[in-house]
Design goal:
Layout (H helix, E strand, L loop, with lengths): L2 H6 L9 H9 L1 E6 L4 E3 L4 E2 L1 E7 L1 E7 L5 E8 L2 E2 L11 E2 L3 E4 L3 E7 H7 L7 H24 L2 H11 L1 H6 L2 H8 L3 H13 L3 E4 L2 E4 L2 H8 L2
Antiparallel strand pairs: 1-10, 2-9, 3-8, 4-7, 4-10, 5-6, 5-9, 11-12
Helix pairs in contact: 5-9
């Protein structure tokens, strides 16, 4: 598929006409990367706006003891790059980002994107929505790490990332949620006992979405 056609199939670029699609395609490139590829490291400066077209990535930080601290997943199609200011010509990454499956990334020249689109009022709303999503992810992180109980943490991940939950080992989920494996088991058993979830061969299915939602909104 031509890059122009790829762009036109995405909601983010759906408001652009053919000429505008050709323009943005002229200073963009789509590249496929293998699983575990490091997209960028924390505090890296870049002149490229990165957009995940296909696949899944994860954002994380490394603490002073060299431990990985999970932040959130990035699902296609969505913005990868962190944008803290419209005025700067370069973008600085807030975290490390790596791919957790084979993925395709759109690389857009950020300076030209600002000049030809944002400065002219094009794609401003779509761009702002992506920035707001980044802010919501940060709020979710704060809730998960400082506000939520263990039960709420598990319920949130089941509600928001069920496919990912089922693809990971229980030990990996415990690390992501910063809870003990035994605690995770107890929470899952409680949710199953309350007929909120069911499990077969370690795969979770949600039986009562409203009840699950109520668990982490208590």
């Amino acid at each position: 598929m031509l890059l122009k056609e790829t762009l036109s199939s995405l909601d983010f670029f759906s408001s652009l006409n053919d000429e505008e699609l050709e323009l943005i395609a002229s200073f963009s490139i789509a590249t496929t990367y293998d699983k575990e590829y490091i997209v960028h490291y924390e505090k890296t400066q870049s002149t490229s706006l990165l957009f995940l077209l296909e696949g899944v990535a994860k954002a994380y930080k490394i603490d002073k003891h060299n431990n990985e601290i999970f932040l959130h997943y990035i699902y296609a199609p969505s913005l990868i790059s962190d944008v803290s200011s419209y005025k700067k010509e370069t973008l600085i990454s807030f975290s490390n980002v790596s791919l957790i499956e084979d993925s395709k990334i759109l690389n857009i020249d950020y300076k030209k994107f600002k000049e030809h689109f944002l400065a002219k009022g094009h794609l401003c709303q779509e761009f702002a929505n992506e920035v707001i999503l980044k802010s919501q992810q940060l709020q979710s992180l704060i809730n998960r790490e400082f506000i939520f109980t263990s039960v709420a943490k598990v319920a949130t991940m089941l509600h928001d990332d069920l496919d990912m939950f089922n693809s990971l080992k229980r030990s990996e989920i415990s690390l992501i949620l910063n809870i003990q494996p035994e605690t995770l088991s107890r929470v899952l058993n409680r949710l199953k006992r309350d007929n909120i979830i069911d499990s077969k061969h370690t795969k979770i299915t949600i039986l009562n979405k409203e009840a699950l939602l109520g668990v982490y909104e208590e």
